[in-house]
Amino acid sequence: MPDIPERAALECLVNGLIHRDYLETGSEVHIDIYDDRMEIYSPGGMYAGTFVQNLDTDRVPSKRRNPIIADVFSRMNYMERRGSGFKKIKSDYRTAVNYLPELEPKFYSDSSSFWVTLYNLNYHVPVEQSGKATFGEGKATFDEGKATFETQKAIFQASISGLHVKQPTKEKMMKVYEKVGYSQPFGRAEIMNIISVSSYSAGELIKKMREAGLIESVDGRGKGKYQFIIKPE
Questions:
Q1: Most CB contacts within 10 A, which of 60, 155, 167, 211?
Q2: φ and ψ of 31, to 5 deg
Q3: Rounded to an integer, what distance in angstroms lies between the CA atom of residue 90 and that of residue 84?
Q4: Which residues neighbour 205 within 8 Å (Cβ) at sequence distance 6 or greater?
Q5: Could you tell me whether strands 113-119 and 106-109 are parallel, antiparallel, or unpaired per DSSP bridges?
Q6: Residue 77 to residues 10, 93, 196: CA-CA distances in angstroms?
Q7: 27-70, pLDDT tens digit by residue?
Q8: What is the pLDDT of residues 170-215, one digit of tens each?
Q9: Cα gap 170→205, rounded to integer Å
C-alpha cells in the first residue's frame, strides 16, 4: 500500500510542470516531502485568475497556460488531451485502501502561486508492536498465524470450486484472496494491481464475487470497498 497513490502524485507533478508560469524567472516547481504529506508548489496561480480553494474541483474546466507544453506531455501519454486533473487526483485517493475523507488532497492558489498537498495514507495507520515477546514466542505466533491462513485458504478454495464460472475467473479470485485475505478491504484499484486487468475487468470480477456471496461492501474505508466474508468453520 503506497503512502501516496502513484497516479495522483504523477498527475500533480505533470500539472505543476505544464501549468506553471514560465515568465516568472528565478522560480521553479518545488517538491517537499514530510512524514505525513507531500507538498508540490508551482509558480503561477490559476490561469483564469480564480482561486482553486473557492471552486468545486469536480467541475473545474481545463484551461492551459502553456498549450504547446501540454501537447508534448499529451503525446508522451503523461496527460489526457481533455478534462481536469483534479478529479483524477481525488479519484485515485478515494479508491486507495487507507483513504479517509480528512486525507483528501488539498489545493490552494493565489494570484502567483499554486500548492497541492498529498497526504500520506499510511501515516495514521497504527502498527501493532508488543516488543516484549521472546524470539521463540514470536516464532510460535508466526507459525500459528501461518497455519490459520493456510486453513482459511483451503476453505476459500473449496468455496469457489463449485461456482459456475470459468477456471481463469476462479484463479483470479484466488489471487485476490491470497493477497488481501479476510481482513483487508479492497476495491477495483487493488484488483487491477494484483491481477493486472483493466478497471472494467476488475469491476466484473467484483460483480461475480458479490453474486457468489464471497464479498460484501465495507463502510468507512472509501467508496467501492469490499471484504471477503467467508469465515472458517
A1: 60
A2: -125, 115
A3: 11
A4: 169, 172, 173, 176, 191, 195, 197
A5: antiparallel
A6: 12, 21, 19
A7: 899 999 999 999 999 998 887 788 888 888 877 777 788 889 98
A8: 999 989 988 887 778 899 998 998 998 898 999 999 999 999 888 8
A9: 10
Q: Residue 4 has which C-alpha cell?
A: 501516496
Q: What share of the chain is helix, strand, coil (3-state, %, to 5)?
A: 45, 10, 45
Of 146, 150, 197, the closest CA to residue 173 belongs to 197
- DSSP H/E element including 114: strand 113-119
- Residue 106 backbone phi and psi in degrees, to 5: -110, 135
Please report the pLDDT score of residue 132 as a whole number. Answer: 47
Query: What one-character DSSP code corresponds to residue 117?
Result: E
- Asked if residues 196 and 172 have their Cβ atoms less than 8 Å apart, the reply is no
